[in-house]
Amino acid sequence: MLVVCLGNRPPAEPPQVAITNGLVQASLYLPDTAQGYYQGTRFDWSGAFKNLDHKGHSYVEPWFENYNPKTHDAINGPVEEFVALDFPNVKPGDSFVKIGVGVLRKPNDKPYSFSTDYAVLDYGKWTVKSYKDKVVFRHDLTDETGYSYEYTKTVRLTKGKPELVLEHSLKNTGQKPIETSTYNHNFWVIDKQPTGPPITVQFPFAVSGEGKGFGSTILAQGNNLTYSRNLDKKEQVYSAGLKGFGPTASDYDFRIENLKSGAGVHASGDQPLEKLVFWACATTSCPEPYIRLKAAPGQKVTWTIRYDFYQNVNP
């Protein structure tokens, strides 16, 4: 067992750890304020992937062209973000909390922007325990505004199955109730295939969407999203909210397949969807499933996301 705390002197390369269950091999970057691969203020610092492979197929690659550890989206998936706590009511110059990141300063009266690199006032305390087939991340944070929490995320490869499991718990250790939303951006890149007709996204319901590229570049056909052509280098498609899902957790379910190589990933969650954003660029197709979280002082909430990796017999 390896225990990593932020107080240790960081190595020259970003701290990372490899895990495997014999079927899936993955490497994860570890939180570190000085040498960490990701140091932005948008995404949760736990569980950032370097790579993930199964049966000769790759699922995680850098999807972005330019890298800087402070860039808000310079991170490989699957990766999660929590909506900032009570941001609209925070006065300019005062602090606000992002779970999995820390206590940040609100610089002005502008609305929250995920692309802004907010000043970090308190990173909290990260503790990481690494095993052969899993990594356990814990983030403890206490803020003078009354928000405090103990957040634990376990990234685990299931024994005997080509499955990745993300297990979460959030305990409210402060005086204020925690109400927020969280989503997984996913960022899967399957076998380095560019976004286009070989990539399909499948849901258990008839899906529809409006937004940039919908109805022309990206098409909703029954339960599937397909592409009419390859996306150009700087092109994006986007919908602020796909429609068709119901109120139960059974609709937190989607598949992304590379029809050229036959490799796919099946995602499912144990919470109902709050909304379902969709974004894609030339390198990745990203369903972004949101769930709602509420925890009164002293209360702990839990949720789980599962990813199954598979190979179609006849790609």
Protein architecture, described:
It contains no helices and 23 strands. The protein has 315 residues and is an all-beta fold. The strands form four sheets. Strands 1-10-11-12-13-23-20-19-15-17-16 form an eleven-stranded antiparallel β-sheet, with no helix packed on it. A five-stranded antiparallel β-sheet has the order 6-14-22-21-18, with no helix packed on it. Strands 2-3-4-5 form a four-stranded antiparallel β-sheet, with no helix packed on it. The protein starts with a strand and ends with a strand.
Number of alpha- plus pi-helical segments: 0
Structural class: mainly beta
Q: What is the number of E strands?
A: 23
Oligomer: single chain
- Estimate the mean pLDDT confidence: 95
Radius of gyration: 19 Å
What is the helix fraction of residues, given as a range? under 10%
Give the spatial strand order of the biggest sheet.
1-10-11-12-13-23-20-19-15-17-16
The H/E string reads EEEEEEEEEEEEEEEEEEEEEEE
- Main sheet? 11 strands, antiparallel
Beta-strand percentage range: 35-45%
